[in-house]
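Open question from group meeting: does this chain pack into something compact, or does most of it stay loose? Before anyone orders reagents, we agreed to write out a predicted structure and look at it together. Recording both the input and the output here so the notebook holds the full record.
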Amino acid sequence: MKTITKIQIVIGLCVSSLIGCSQEKQPPQTTEVHKTQTQAVTQPAPTVSTTLLAQAQPTPAPAESAPAATETPPTATETPAATTETSQAATQTPPGAVAAPPAEAQPAKTEAAPPKAAVETGAPHVERGEVLPLIQYDEVALTTVIESLARQAGINYILDYKVPYGQIGPDGKPLPQPIVTIRWENITAEAALLAVLNNYDLQLVEDPKTKVARITRKDPAAPDPLVTKIIQLKFASVSNMAAAVNAVLTDKRSKVLPDTRTSQLIVVATEREQFAVQELIDKLDTQTRQVLIEGRIMEVSLNPKTKKGVDWSATLEKQNVSFGNGITTGTTETEIPGASQVITLPSKRQITTAPRYTETTVLETVLGSGGLSLNTYKGLTPNIGFLNADGLNAVLSFLNTYAESRVLSAPRTVTLDNEPTFIEVGQMYPVINISPQSQMYAGGSQINYTNLTLRLEVTPSISANDYVNLKVKPSVVRLGPKISSMVAGYANEVDSFYKREMETRVLIPSGNTLVLGGLVQDEINDAATKVPVLGDIPVLGYAFRSKSRERGKMNLMIFITPTIVRDEDFQPTKTEFLKTPLPSGDALDEDWSALDTTEPVDWSKPEPLKASKRKYEFDESLVAPKAQ
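Structure tokens returned:
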């Protein structure tokens, strides 16, 4: 008994060319490889070809061992009671090469030709899906090629009885089968097996329950079977990729289902469509390139002012003159019944009377406000008049002012290809909106905020020659002067804003700098005042005229440098944060002096102001839930 790694039903295997063993010219009588044949005298029975792989350790046999018949383990198909002759010496495959079984076996009286197959694929047992450098067969029977490739691919299979290749005919002789001659490079054993089966209208049907595949003939009228495959995406979005995959699915039964949680695609399609889908995904599911956007935004504003001379505008532009004794207004109050009155008679007797009503008149006069007030009883009230005027008001100016401001921003950001990014720096300015009161609305106020910011919005697009197509949109919003307005008869002052915005699209090489300018505002204001005639007098006329000049200039310069990020630009940073144990409690280890603490201090010590070394710890037991 032997414990072997491959349980094979092998009858008559001899490959003398690979092990260099010397054989006599006596032709070995062999039967078909990997088949347990049953040959009866009266009626032939169909043979069954199987390949089963076990996981037992091999037991080496001595070199002088005589030829022995292969024992069939219980898991293999047992041979019926029929005479089976084996070769005189069993060939053992060396570890460095895989030997293909010999050619088609002939009847007992026919001399078997030496094998002409060699498979240069390294170790006999390879991982499933491993690419083999070379697979070569030279005039080898089809069933032998199938057995060899299935063994290398690690596939357990059984040959359908409807496949006539290698079966025993009515005359007791094996039926003829195709002879295969191939030479393939850089291919997996499974792919080679499927290619061979497809060439002879055979198919490999896997049984998920028994894990034993069945090789059978294809039905020409049956549609291609659907295959379910789960594809893991690396960089692309599952929703975008699902739309692209649907374009290559031609079978109405095929479909694709995206799983956004795991970034996987569930593709149910035919084998041909699966290859097209995989090829499409390999081309589209690539790493998205990134662009480093570096900007320099410089905003310069100049505001020089000069004003010289005497300004008489407040006196001569608008002089209010009024004459009069004022405007008198009055109110009369009537009380019913009237207040009681005491009257003294000549006899000195006092009588108390109560009139029906009492009237009281109160006069109010605003003196010096112009107008005339005339009383029918006394005449002018008051009896004195006033002449009023605004008087003289002059402003003497002899001053120069100069204001300059420079705002420099250096934003930097990284964004994906064709993804917009923006940087905004500034202040949120409050704006109060007042709603007037009406019959239907109680009125009120509301506070909104506007952005007094500098905003730079960039959308890069990388071309094939490392050029960057930039869509740039800079904007600057600044506070302007206040503007007066009337709302429902009420005077209000509202804020105004200066806004400068530009949008453009350019194409520049990676690493080059784009300069954007033109957002310049230059405003010059000249003003002059002069009193007619008096301002024309030589020398003395300077006291009756003035001149002012103001200039406001604002310039915005934007420098943008897009750089395509390469893989070598990334530098990993080593950190031990995840391996650091959690602290047992929160503690304050900072030094606090005696003047900063609320704890009692012993001032009798020589150095009371020295930093305290006390450690304040948080007691978690105070807030921990108590056990029930």
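Observations to bring back to the group:
Confidence is low (pLDDT under 50) at residues 1-48, 54-123.
The first helix runs from residue 16 to 19.
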